[in-house]
Amino acid sequence: MASLDRVKVLVLGDSGVGKSSLVHLLCQNQVLGNPSWTVGCSVDVRVHDYKEGTPEEKTYYIELWDVGGSVGSASSVKSTRTVFYNSVNGIILVHDLTNKKSSQNLYRWSLEVLNRDSVPTGVLVMNGDYDQEKFADNQIPLLVIGTKLDQIHETKRHEVLTRTAFLAEDFNAEEINLDCTNPRYLAAGSSNAVKLSRFFDKVIEMRYFLRDGNQIPGLPDRKRFWGGTFKNLHYD
Amino acid sequence: MSFLIDSSIMITSQICFFGFGWLFFMRQLFKDYEVRQYVVQVIFSVTFAFSCTMFELIIFEILGVLSSSSRYFHWKMNLCVILLILVFMIPFYIGYFFVSNIRLLHKQRLPFSCLLWLTFMYFFWKLGDPFPILSPKHGILSIEQLISRVGVIGVTLMALLSGFGAVNCPYTYMSYFLRNVTDTDILALERRLLQTMDMIISKKKRMAVARRTMFQKGEVHNKPSGFWGMIKSVTTSAPGSENLTLIQQEVDALEELSRQLFLETVDLYATKERIEYSKTFKGKYFNFLGYFFSIYCVWKIFMATINIVFDRVGKTDPVTRGIEITVNYLGIQFDVKFWSQHISFILVGIIIVTSIRGLLITLTKFFYAISSSKSSNVIVLLLAQIMGMYFVSSVLLIRMSMPLEYRTIITEVLGELQFNFYHRWFDVIFLVSALSSILFLYLAHKQAPEKHMAP
Question: Measured between CB atoms, does B370 come within 8 Å of chain A?
Fold first, then answer.
């Protein structure tokens, strides 16, 4: 059973948004009882059935790499974090629905990962401004998850959900809003569970089934410019 | 009439300080968080504004701006407001926000925060007992009682920060202490880190698969319910769950290792950056400053020891002493009064500005390091409390750096405190803090290179 294929998905977001709780919920179907700060990176594994219910069903391991820290960390921390960004097949962006700044910081997080080949001192060419072209070229599937939904009052819910819909659109990604302390949000058959499943399927497809002629992000020797296709040297 | 003009000047400056505190809060401290409770921001800015006003009044005292009666009035008023904030408002709000974070006590926030505040007041009062800071003729609820206790806490804080800063400053500036770090070291450590992560992943995969098989087979590995369930679990235990606990322990150990490796790698990157920085022009300048500061630090430790051992407290301030030396030994004649005023103004001004700036920078670093979205309110209020106490005790201690004629107003306003005690206490804590920082840095420095040598 240890010979199942694997994909690597990063879970990014500001400090305290609930990434560790989310990862624990996704992998162990249980609520995390005592969340504490993540130092460095914590990994967990989820067993996922690709194309469940069809004849082509196959089981994969999905590694969820939960990277701790904040966007404004020292450059030494940022340089160390880049070691976790190799060979990434999917990115889950987590933000806190009660904290607008964490949603805004998602742009900087995604740029930190997508730009990891450039100068490692963390000097971003675009000053963190959102650039549609970069995201259009991006081949890594993204998913936006908003946490702490239970702490949003009923009256404000509509306004918050509209804002997050725009955010997900910017990233060209699906979005899920939930509360990590309540497993029923991801109950089997709910729309959230379907979206999650679809996201993981897309990640697996990108990694294993769309090799020829397309760029595979995350290889250590990829060239230093965006866009276009290039010869890919892939090895497992 | 002049009183009105003076008051309007004071109020304008207070509003300026308030605005500055507000901006600092928004731009620096709460950069990554959303401000939902404006009370916190207001309290922080008000504390900052009133603390800065005290320093402003000292400067006015030296320069002779505004009439002395209005200065005295504003001193008293300022002091009352600051004490009110530091002793009553901030502790109450700290208790309130702390209790709001705990889900269980959410309904009865107010009574619990009042309880916390009363506990704080009790310990605050008890603080005055072991110290010989008051004469018994003072009433129980006078300003002197409150100021003396606030002064003790604030002076301790100042001395701790001072001691640590005096030792840490040359240690960070001088490149003599930089360890040699090469790119290969960093790569080797990163490789170890990734290997550890891979080991964690493979163990977690086994656990995930084992859980899935158990779930599919319908085995219940939760706590068995009912009487017979409990008896059964004592004698037999599912082999699957036993394996899981074993693997979980291994995973915990590996995760701890990965955290250590991560922190070490961060350390190496930081050292590498510092090495590169030390090769630049600015770096060389700071290196030179570092040597200078290390001499200053040794001198201060020496002076503190002498003060304690020989039980003496300086009577004259550095300005007057410096002028005396130049007049008596070097024979240069100049107008003592005129120059002493200006020089003490510059000296006191520099002390004030550097201590405010230093404190704000330290507070910001501290805040980034320990705060999270849940506790940010409580931490900011704690920082505001520390800041207020720090500034109040700076006023206490700055008295020693001023010539005699300017000291009177502080002595008058603050009442008859035992100022000498505070200076002695500062020296003691400074010495303790500096020596323990030296010990601490020495141990940290020794331990680090050995870690990297290990295969």
Answer: no
- At B424 the pLDDT is 82
Helix, strand, coil shares of chain A as percentages rounded to 5? 35, 20, 45
Chain A nearest-CA residue for B374: A16
A209 Cβ contact partners less than 8 Å away, ≥ 6 residues apart? none
**Min distance B269 CA to chain A CA atoms (Å):** 5
Q: Which residues on B lie below 8 Å from A45 (Cβ)?
A: 201, 204-205, 207-208
Over residues B147-190, the pLDDT tens digits come to: 778 888 888 888 887 787 778 777 777 777 777 778 888 889 88
pLDDT tens-place string over residues A90-119: 888 888 888 888 888 888 888 888 876 654
Among the partner-chain residues B190, B201, B373, the one whose CB lies closest to the CB of A43 is: B201
With beta carbons less than 8 A apart as the criterion, state whether B203 and B247 touch.
Answer: yes
Structural element, H or E, at residue B62: helix B38-63
Q: Which amino acid is at A89?
A: N
CB nearest to A101's CB, from B33, B206, B272 = B33
Amino acid at A176: I
Q: Residue B371: its pLDDT value, please?
A: 67
Say how far apart CA A183 and CA A162 lie, in whole Å: 24
Name the H helices within B134-238: 143-173, 183-217, 227-235
- Interface membership of B31 toward A (CB under 8 Å): yes
| B109 vs B426: CA distance, rounded Å | 38
pTM over 0.95: no
Contact B263, B196 (CB under 8 A): no
Among A16, A43, A80, the residue with its CB nearest the CB of B373 is: A16
- ipTM of the prediction greater than 0.95, yes or no: no
Interface residue A116 vs chain B (CB under 8 A)? no
Element (H, E) at A177: strand A174-177
Q: Other CB atoms closer than 10 Å to residue A179's CB: what's the count? A: 20
* Interchain proximity B270–A41, CB inside 8 Å: no
